[in-house]
Every structure is written in C-alpha cells, then in structure tokens.
Design brief:
With 380 residues, this protein is an alpha/beta fold. The protein is built from 14 helices and ten strands. It folds into three domains: 216 residues, Rossmann fold (3-Layer(aba) Sandwich); 45 residues, no CATH class; 70 residues, no CATH class. 37% of the residues lie in helices and 16% in strands. The chain is globular and about 65 Å long. The structure holds adenosine-5'-diphosphate and magnesium ion. The site of adenosine-5'-diphosphate has 10 residues, from helix 1. Magnesium ion binds next to helix 1. It comes from Amycolatopsis dongchuanensis.
Amino acid sequence: MGAEVVIEGLTKSFGRQTIWRDVTLTLPPGEVSVMLGPSGTGKSVFLKSMIGLLKPDRGKCMINGVDIVRCSEHKLYETRKLFGVLFQDGALFGSMNLYDNVAFPLREHTKKSETEIRRIVLEKLEMTGLAGAEKKLPGEISGGMRKRAGLARALVLDPEIILVDEPDSGLDPVRTTYISQLFLDVNAQIDATFLIVTHNINLARTVPDNLGMLFRKELVMFGPREVLLTSEEPVVKQFLNGRMDGPIGMSEEKDQAQMAAERAMFEAGHHAGGVEEVTGIPPQMQPAPGLPTRQGAIRRKDRVMQILHTLPPAAQEGIIESLSPEEQARYGVHPRRGAYEDPPTINTTPVPPRHSGELPSEEVARIPGAHRRTQGPGGA
Ligand SMILES: Nc1ncnc2c1ncn2[C@@H]1O[C@H](COP(=O)(O)OP(=O)(O)O)[C@@H](O)[C@H]1O
Ligand SMILES: [Mg+2]
C-alpha cells in the first residue's frame, strides 16, 4: 500500500514573497489526488517542498513518521526514495537512450546487478507502453512518449508516492487522456499514492479520487472529488468551468470594481467562454479492463462513507449516487433524487440480480448531468 502523506500548516515564501500559507491536507494511501491552481500559484513549489528540494518556512510534511521539513539529511535521503517524481518536461537525459534513462536511478541508488536492472527496466517500459523503444533517444520520440519514459523511470525504485507535475503540458487532449489512463493503470497495479498538479479541467474532473485547489496563496479546498465538483465556491466553480466570470482574472485575481463591471457585462450576455456550466459529477476513469481493481478506490469508499455526514449535501448526493444499489444497501443509504422520473426505491433488503438488457441504475447515475435536469430553465 502507498504511504499516507500528512501536511500541516505548510507555509513557503521566497524572501518577502509568500507563495502559499497554512496548507493542511492528507493524501490518503493509494488514492489519486489532483491539486488544481492557476499558473504561478506555487504548484511546482509545493511538489518540490514535499520531497525536500525546497524548505518551507513553517509546518510539517509527514511521511511514515518522518517530517520532511525538519528531518536530518540522512532521513531525507532515505525518505526521498519512497517518491517517484514525474517532472513537467520528463527531465530525461538527452544523451542517454530510454533504457539508460530508466536504469539510471537503479544504477545510482542500488547495488543491483545489470541482469536484475535489465529485468526491472524492461518491466517498467512494458508497463508504460514503451516496450521496444529502449534504444530511442529522448529527442527522437514524441512528447507523450517522453512523459511515459519519465514515468517508467519514476517507477523503478518501487515508489510509494508518485508526484506528477503538469502531465498535460505540451500534450494534446487525446494524449492527455492516454497518460491519465496510464496513471490509473499504474495505480491499480502498484497501489501508490498519487498527487498530480495541473490546471487541466478535464483531468481534474475525471481522474482523481480527491481534488484540491490552490488560489490566492491558500489551499481553497481539498477533499473527495464530489465536494469540489459540486462546489458553489466561486473560485472553484469558475476554474472547473474554465470561464472568465469569477474571481480569477487575466494575470491572477480581480478586484471588486473589476468583478462588478464584468458581472454587468456577462449578465448582459457577453460569452464568458469555457464550457457550458456542467452540473453533476462526471464518471471517474477506471483502470483498463483486465487490470486489478484499485485498492485505493476500495479503501476510499469506506473512508468517504465515514465522513459522509460532514460533507455538503450536493457532495453527499453525488457520492451516494456513485454507489451501486448493493453498496447503497450495505451502507444503508439511498439517493434522494434519482435519475428516473420515478426513482427506484432502495432499501436495506438485498437487491435482486439485474436481468440482461436492463440499464443498471448506477450507470444511469454516472451519466454527467443525468440528474438535476429539472433544475433551472432549459437545464443549461
Ligand atoms: N527557487 C525559487 N526562487 C524564488 N522564487 C521562486 C522559486 N521557484 C518558484 N518561485 C516563484 O514561486 C511562484 C510559484 O511558482 P510555481 O510553483 O512554479 O507555480 P506553478 O507551478 O503553480 O505555475 C512564482 O512566482 C515563482 O516565480
Ligand atoms: Mg509549475
């Protein structure tokens, strides 16, 4: 199982410039979390602080009982081995072929024989869809392949935590989806804890178990995906819809006067860009068929059900709707508004097996926007 990461009151400044302050969050073991934030909000600084490449001014970052912020050099060196990091550009050595790039951490940090190294390198290249490409130089392959090679290299020391910086940078939307699929596939196979930082809305909506957002030097929110995806918090809502109307402006944030002037403009019908406001929670991407079920997702279900009563109503509803009727029965919960005109009654008695041809209700509930159609004029 991946390691849990507990971050408490983490604050980082460079000289007099505070990057973010008082960041408190827990990355649950083996779950996939995404941290959103506009450019320049300190996402990369956050990842670097987590592995001790940068020193925060205050706060803790605990991994297996070690505080990365304050531990000895020796402990830091040891704890860093638990991390696999995929930097924005893949950070491959341009003069080395993929095989040597991926073998590098093994040669550097272990005393393994070349035979053993070969076995591991080929396994990770296979896992990331790069079998047969070992002789290629980074300059000879596509951006997507470079990212996958960076991931293969991040995997060779069997990391418990994988940090990914903007996996979509330089990739088209289709390649971004492929790399997202790969993260979930890898997560299913090794159960590592993932933190992906990005400003990609689509990835944030469909990939993680948990979502967070950095803005105005603070962690605005962090929690189960359903919480942010149904949030009415203006910053979160604006960001997840990629729109111009809201507190986030061209350079970073807007002042009150600008907000008011723009509100009038958008109310008068000026297109705010982005996607049409999406209600409901899109289905989460799943590991490819044939791969094991994500253990992190199984643990998350229990974890989230335990804190369910503490979450906002819309998030509760989304979580309940994402459960199968059997799970709803097991947890003793039932959806308040179903996807049907006449919602099926779900009680705690065992659910009869569904017959073929019938559309399973949990799949209906997962169709984005399938519920809440009755809200608002015209629904969109
Ligand atoms: N080593 C550094 N020294 C001084 N300032 C830095 C350093 N690294 C990053 N910054 C500043 O921290 C802020 C956040 O940067 P970054 O983490 O790269 O943002 P993001 O990854 O969210 O786009 C920026 O203003 C950047 O200039
Ligand atoms: Mg960055």
